[in-house]
Amino acid sequence: VWNIGSDGQFLMGAFAAVGVGIKVDAPHWLLIILMALAASIAGAAWILVPALARAYWGVNEIITTLLLNFVALQLVLWSALGFWRDKKSQVTQSTESVDAVLPRFPGLNSVSIAFIAPLLLAVVLWFVFRSTRVGYEIDMIGGNANAASFAGINVPRRIVTVMLLTGAIAGFGGML
């Protein structure tokens, strides 16, 4: 299974994070958490249709996810130039500012948690793929989906789960 559409999921994650950041009035720490959740959900939602189409009807996920990249780009451009455009700014493609800022590392003002989050996520995913049943099933499906199905693994369900997870990760990246 190939997720070529991570750019679109990244953009939709950024889109959702900005929407929450602009429209929700909350303490900064809560706003960052809400933005991360919205971004992850938006990234997963953006790949839901290609995931279901691939898992249950055999539709090529490379084509569907790749084409949705262009739709996501147009939606982000439309929002930046239209309904979220900052009327006070002289910059054409500018939204209102989001007050919440990701925390910085002490002593390293230029490095935020956006640097460490992907590294921690990679360690967690490495552990999942090497030490859990779910990781084994995903590896097995990648090797031979027919053998995995014969072994009792629900292949369509795992395909949808993995694709939703990759969409959520890409959306979270868009928030960062």
Helix and strand run: HHHEEHHHH
Oligomer: single chain
Structural class: mainly alpha
Share in β-strands = under 5%
* Average pLDDT over all residues: 90
Largest sheet: 2 strands, antiparallel
The radius of gyration is 18 Å
First and last CA, distance: 25 Å
Q: Tell me how many strands there are.
A: 2
Strand order of the main beta sheet, please? 1-2
Share of helical residues: over 70%
Count of DSSP H/I helices: 7
Overall 3D shape: globular
- List low-confidence stretches: none
List descriptors.
mainly alpha, 176 residues, two-stranded antiparallel ribbon, single chain
What does this structure look like?
- With 176 residues, this protein is mainly alpha-helical.
- It has seven helices and two strands, in the order αααββαααα.
- A two-stranded antiparallel sheet has the order 1-2.
- Helix 2 runs antiparallel to helix 7.
- It is globular.
- The mean pLDDT is 90.
